[in-house]
Specification:
- The structure is a single chain.
- The protein contains 10 helices and 4 strands.
- With 231 residues, it is α+β, with helices and mostly antiparallel strands.
- It has 2 domains: 79 residues, Glutaredoxin; 125 residues, Glutathione S-transferase Yfyf (Class Pi), Chain A, domain 2 (Up-down Bundle), CATH 1.20.1050.10.
- It has a 4-stranded mixed β-sheet with strand order 2-1-3-4, covered by helices on one side.
- Helix 1 links the parallel strand 1 and strand 2.
Length: 231
Amino acid sequence: MAPSDVKVQLLGSWASPFSIRVQMGLKLKSVEHEFIEENFYSNKSDRLLKANPIHKKIPVLIHSQKPICESLLILEYIDEVWTDGPSILPSDPYERATARFWTTYIDQTWFPIMKELEKAANDEAKATVIGKVIEGLVLLEAAFVKCSKGKSFFGGDNVGYIDIVLGSYFGWIKVLESVGGLKLLDGTRTPGLAGWAERFLSHNVVKDVFPEPSKLLEFYMMVKAARVSSA
């Protein structure tokens, strides 16, 4: 049975950047699938706990009744199983390793710094965090110039691995900009990334799965209020 003939399910959440990146990967490969909304803060379903008993987190891709966990691993799995259509990872081994390096940096270093903005106790602490965030964006600007080779995306002519991973956070970047009165993707400081963001958000793989910023901001405020209430 061909991969396209097997029912595919995605356990995720509309607001989760990790779910959004998997949705983009599936759409890039034109893989028909059923999206199953999960609550990733509380009341996790038995289905999710059974599919991901170790981390108990979304997203989980279920293919041929077999679960695949962790968004980066899922993207690589999608790329390897559904070989038709644009590639997610570069074919060149060095470029593929470079793409993996930057996605790891984005997930494990840069975005965690972004989240520190929520915890900044005063203006001085906030300014320190913003400085670190901008330092990271400058590094990513240089990575974009190198990886894109003068083309529209990190992946070249089409969105690829780094585009999907960095771009999946874009909604939350806009939320933090709105809440903090910031402008992080500055056309003067990081012109390459600023242009990339516009092209990325208008790409047909992205715009159908990307949440409205206003809806995401409303969700953020609701979760924040619930945290304050429970504390």
